[in-house]
Specification:
Blueprint lengths: L2 H8 L1 E2 L5 E2 L10 H5 L4 E9 L7 E9 L5
Antiparallel strand pairs: 1-2, 3-4
């Protein structure tokens, strides 16, 4: 998953009257490393953009740090 997907997933309330809880939104993508220390790593993956061959799109991908997690 990309970091932005996880950040957006954290703001969803899973209780009976679900919805969004904007107060839970992380402001910095590195904050997720403080929530899950030692369990995940973040890696940058680049893909070619659509506008021109010079454009690169960077995604921050989350990986489980170890198979036992």
């Amino acid at each position: 998953m990309i970091v932005e997907e996880i950040i957006d997933g954290l703001i969803i309330k899973l209780k009976l009257n679900g919805g969004f809880n904007k107060a839970r939104r992380l402001l910095n993508r590195n904050d997720i490393l403080y929530i899950c220390p030692g369990f995940i790593t973040i890696t940058i993956k680049e893909q070619d953009g659509f506008a021109s061959w010079e454009d690169k799109i960077s995604y921050y991908i989350i990986y489980i740090a170890h198979f036992s997690v």
